[in-house]
Structure formats: C-alpha cells, structure tokens
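Example record for the data management plan.
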Amino acid sequence: MSNSGTKDEIPQKKMRMDQSNINSHESDILESLQGFKVEKILNENAQTKTMFVHGKFENSEDNAVVIVEKTAFSEKSIRGVLSGDTTMKNTLKNDIYGTYEVYPKPEFNEIKTTVIYPATEKHIAKYTGQPVYMVQETPELYSDITLPYLNAENFSIQWVYNILEKKKESERIIYEDSHPETGFILLPDMKWDQKQTDNLYLIAICHKRGIKSLRDLNSSHLPLLRNILTRGKKAIKDTFDVDGSQLRIYIHYQPSYYHFHVHFTHLKFDAPGSNAGRAHLLSDVIDNIELRNDFYQKKTLNFILRENEGLFKKFQESGKVLDSFS
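Corresponding structural encoding:
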C-alpha cells in the first residue's frame, strides 16, 4: 500500500487537455486552441457556467468535444481580482448599489477546459442537450435488455487499465491499496480543479476486474466495499484534511464506464449525478448486501437515461419508460 500526496500540497500541474482521452493522438499535448473551428454548441448550463462544444481542428476530419467551465473562486484568486490591477466598467448605479463588468488579470480569469480528441459519435451524443427519461429496470429487464446491450457494445475501458497499471496518470494518484481483490487507486476526478476542497471530487477505481456495475455486487465484494469506504475516507482526511462526515460517497447506476468505481465528493459540491436516479450511497449498498446477499440481483432499479442513448432506445422499444422531463 502507498499514499502519495501531503496534507498541505494538492497535486498541481500545468493545464493539460485530458491526456487519457487523446487515444491515438496521445503525443498531441495542446498548448493552445489555435485552428479549432466550432461546429455546434452541444449544450450549456448557466448555473454551473459550463458549455459543451463540438468542433474540429484545421487539417483534420476528426471530431473534438471541448468542455469549458468557469473555475470557482479561491481566497488567493479573489484577492487578485479585488485589486488595483482589475479594470471595471459600470453597468448600473442607484444610490449605494452599483453593478460592474470586471476584467481581472489573466491569471485570475482561468477557465477549466477539457478536450476529448478524437471524439466519437457517442461522445457527441453524451454531451448534447436532450430530453432525459426515468426507466425502471427489473432483474428480468437487466438480463433481457441491459446486459445484452452492454456485452454487444463492448465499451472500451483501456484508459482505466492504463491508470491501474500506472501507464498513465500515475503522478495524480493520491492513495493506492495494491491488493488484487480488495485494493483500489484513489485519484482526483477531472471535474475537480484541485484549487480548493469545497468542490473536492475523487474517484476510487478497484483493482479487481470483472465488476461491471452495482448489479454485480454481492456479499463476496463486501471486503472490497468496506475497504474503499474506510481507507478512502482516511486517505482524504490525511491528504486534504476533509472529514469523512463531510463526504458524499456513492456509486452510479448506470455508471459512465463499466469497471467498478466509487465517487467521493464534498457535501458542499453539487456534483453531476449525485442525485436520486443515479447515485447510491456506498454505506447503503453495504447495508443492503449485508441484509441479503443477492439484493442487487433481485431489486428493481430506477435510473435516468438520455433520449439519444442506445440503452434508452432498447428500453423504449420494450415500453418501460416511466416519464420524461427536461
């Protein structure tokens, strides 16, 4: 077992464009977005100040998806913004109240950017704004629809194996338990800019292969689940001084990739997918399996799917869609 990282130092590095997603273009670490042509705005979220863009680079037919997000303020950055180096343009003045457009120095105006390149049609569909639906998956529907779909699609998770084998992103590892059955690697999720802990987001990826999702878990996995819960909380406390009682620790169903992993987020952070309809608290999962070995093989699970997802189309054909909402 090893624990890399210290309480006072959050691993930092020069901004990069998601090396793990560059695939055949692994050596193409971008220094700028020169030559990028916007094809379409896929989606935007005013609340999170995020935009998803489909485009292409000059002299390439490969698609790219660029995700841009305004980063949260830190104490250091706000001191830089609220200084004489910032220029201001007044837009409204009424008595003691004034509103302004503010232009800080570039180093205090960072935008977190993720580039997926080359991007597949599945990536484009994933980030395109579209209606979402609640489906109700019985154990029979899992066997008849979901599992055959997953096996037929054969989603690539080579990038996960690259992390587990330390071929990629080894410098980002916060903690590792190397046991082949109960061990895991803990590292920051790319949604976290690692500037402050209020939006902390880490992922624990288990070393054991063959666990696709929540549906596969039974009592034989309890040592793994307990280990992730206990040691994950301790590693986060030791490294970032965040108590376990300040963490939301959960499993997605359906997950975004089919190798078992657990999400650790700060309670102050409204992380995507941390709500009902997708997130299952790890402590609840452990309790349920302790009550019944095959709990997740017998339970009907409700979850949300996007309209353009292939799995949704399979459920739609079976008439098992409950409702829709935007």
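Summary line stored alongside the record: The radius of gyration is 22 Å.
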